[in-house]
Amino acid sequence: MDEHLLKIRPPVWLPLLVVLIAGGSYIAGKHVEVSGYQPVTISVNGEGKVTAVPDIAELSFGVQTGPQPTAKAAMEKLQKSMNAAFEAVKALGIEEKDISVQSLWLNPSYDWNNGKQTLRGYEANQSLSVKVRDLDKVSDVLSAATNAGANQAGGVQFTIDDPETLRAEAREKAITNAQEKAVTLAKQLGVELGDLKGFSEGGGGYAPPMPYMAKVSMESVGGGMADAGVPLPAGEQEVMVNVSMTYEVED
């Protein structure tokens, strides 16, 4: 039996296909390599501060009746004293929208003798929060309220009515501060700054309201404390903003 050798020649397009597959793999590998590239960056922090005088004051005053024979008597006494104080404050130009109720309660009052509880009566209390937009009137408002019947007053806090405007000014200063730091750092490193790649703001805000506590008791009102023009300096408050900025470094 004759033996025949079967020879199969590969198609002419097969080598070309192998070259294309190998080339595609190489390009794909390069694409993955490029996509994982992380540019060199510089990050800096900036701080901006603005100092301003508070333009608004918030204070509180109220009435505590002490034990009364009945709950009705306690509420009637409370209403009479609070209405008088409310009207006295309004007479100084304080608008109703700037006066709000802080608290209101009515409780029984007891005495304890030899471990036994005895009802003394009923006690009512109400306090109002007042926003004073003319700081020169703060002491006048407190005096007017206590002279009219309020026997509790205090918690004066000086604040900035519109802190957002000041915060925007502080933010602008913080950005300028960060930019100057970035330019200086790039010069020291011998590189050029590229595009801004990141920005964040944190720690922004302003100092909390400055409290002035002035507690007026029922006894001290009778002693003339309500007529005393207590000095209430507003001082200054600081609005501060911190920013963080990231720049790409150019080759």
Quick tags:
251 residues; alpha+beta; Translation Initiation Factor IF3; Alpha-Beta Plaits; 2 domains; five-stranded antiparallel β-sheet; three-stranded antiparallel β-sheet; 34% helix; elongated
Description:
This protein is α+β, with helices and mostly antiparallel strands. The chain folds into two domains: 41-50 and 165-204 and 243-250, Translation Initiation Factor IF3; 54-161 and 208-235, 2-Layer Sandwich (Alpha-Beta Plaits), CATH 3.30.70. Helices cover 34% and strands 37% of the residues. It is built from five helices and eight strands. It has helices at 14-35, 71-90, 138-148, 163-189, 218-222, and strands at 41-52, 56-64, 99-113, 116-132, 152-159, 192-206, 210-212, 237-250. It has a five-stranded antiparallel β-sheet with strand order 3-4-2-5-7, with helices on one face. The chain has a three-stranded antiparallel β-sheet with strand order 1-8-6. Strand 3 (99-113) and strand 4 form a beta hairpin. Helix 2 (71-90) packs antiparallel against helix 3. It is elongated and about 110 Å long. Residues 27-33 and 208-228 have low confidence and may be disordered.
